[in-house]
Design goal:
Layout (H helix, E strand, L loop, with lengths): L1 H27 L10 H18 L1 H12 L2 H32 L8 E5 L3 E2 L2 E2 L1 H16 L5 E4 L10 H11 L7 E4 L5 H16 L5 E6 L3 H10 L4 E6 L6 H18 L1
Helix pairs in contact: 1-2, 2-9, 3-4, 4-8, 4-9, 8-9
């Protein structure tokens, strides 16, 4: 019996160590692709570093927890920690489910387009922004009567506005300047939406129905905010590079929770 239990423990430890190591490196990878450390990869790295360490010190940690459980105060502490962890996992699951569902929605045709801003590198779009531009370009080519607002100001480490980079890129791909509108003041998603819709309202005299282009992980929050502001919109979901996906998903979970509870 003890021999079988030992084999089981070795198997569990091995799985924990492998999973912890793989996902720690996955969250670390964006740092080597010109992405600054952020709350997304720092959270992921911390979680899977702990999982890795749990695998390494599996037996002594379990002995400590067993000893702690035998004491009333220790039992209370473990129950509280367990409830907190359960709440965190539930919130993570719910927010990720919202992301997946929103990213699967289809855009309506023949609507004006808003491309939400994202980091630029020098005067070139980042990988995430390039994915948004590719998705917007495909829609505009299929709907040639649609206007397109590219939205994004100049960040602290950017030498030009995000909108100017997007404007130039789309024009170079064959989209007429007559169909492009640059919004160069927005600094976050809320301002992207509000300032872009204000520009379209000046054109039409009212807020039109639009298509919002952003990355798959960001679609839910963009649509949530659009609905909160009373805008009628459907999304276009742009694929995120696989090595960036976990980092941005976790970071976006914080953004969704902020939108739910603080706005």
């Amino acid at each position: 019996m003890k021999k079988q239990q030992k084999k089981t423990h070795i198997f569990i430890r091995t799985i924990l160590i492998i999973i912890g190591c793989i996902f720690f490196l996955w969250f670390l990878l964006p740092v080597f692709t010109n992405v600054r450390p952020n709350i997304g990869n720092l959270t992921g790295m911390a979680v899977f570093a702990l999982l890795f360490m749990y695998g390494i010190f599996f037996t002594p940690v379990n002995h400590f927890l067993s000893a702690l459980w035998k004491k009333t105060a220790g039992r209370i502490v473990e129950i509280i920690i367990g409830l907190i962890l359960a709440a965190i996992f539930i919130l993570a699951g719910v927010t990720y489910g919202c992301m997946l569902h929103a990213a699967g929605q289809e855009p309506k045709q023949n609507k004006d387009v808003i491309v939400l801003g994202c980091k630029v590198n020098g005067e070139n779009p980042s990988l995430s922004l390039l994915a948004r531009l590719d998705a917007a370009l495909e829609y505009l080519e299929e709907n040639p009567d649609s206007y397109c607002v590219v939205s994004g100001g100049q960040g602290k480490e950017e030498i030009v506005t995000e909108a100017s980079v997007m404007y130039r890129w789309l024009h170079e791909q064959g989209i007429s300047e007559n169909k492009l509108i640059a919004e160069e003041k927005a600094s976050d998603t809320e301002e992207n939406l509000k300032l872009s819709m204000d520009l379209l309202k000046k054109r039409y005299g009212k807020y039109p129905e639009v298509v919002i282009v952003t990355n798959d992980f960001h679609v839910y929050r963009a649509m949530y905010l659009a609905k909160t502001f009373g805008y009628n919109a459907t999304p276009i979901s742009a694929k995120t590079p696989w090595w960036l996906y976990p980092t941005y998903v976790v970071r976006e979970m914080y953004g969704i929770l902020e939108s739910w509870f603080l706005k």
